[in-house]
């Protein structure tokens, strides 16, 4: 399967560095939590920063994890592989940085609200938990 086959099934696809971002089809994604890239072995890589397993992500658009491995590459030279490896890493990093920028704003707003003695309702707490999970996930990508 080519990466285009996955991209064509996603919503909100945008070019991001050497990869793409899109709305994750496996959860109610209001922001672009999904990072897509092509790995050094030609595999299609998909990473949801809200923590959806890759099987759920591809399953939600009628594909299987095996489809991601089916890509055929013309160029198997070490240089081409290294180039694809770097592209996949850059795509993940730029997605992680965007997630951090967005979700840290949510965490900062919550910190400010605590400082002001504001009360949190269930939705606020759920959104804060989501932000914390995403920040955690982005940190793992950036420090791997
Ligand atoms: Zn997701």
Question: How would you describe this protein?
Answer:
With 144 residues, this protein is an alpha+beta fold. 52% of the residues lie in helices and 15% in strands. The protein contains 5 helices and 4 strands, in the order αββββαααα. It has a 4-stranded antiparallel β-sheet. The longest helix is centred in the C-terminal third of the chain and has 38 residues. 28% of the residues are buried. The mean pLDDT is 87. The chain binds zinc ion.
Bound molecules: zinc ion
Helix proportion range: 40-55%
Largest beta sheet: strand ordering: 1-2-3-4
Radius of gyration: 17 Å
pLDDT averaged over residues: 87
Largest sheet: 4 strands, antiparallel
Q: Measure the end-to-end span.
A: 27 Å
What structural category characterises the helix and strand content? alpha+beta
Number of domains: 1
- Count up the helices: 5
- Strand percentage lies at 5-15%
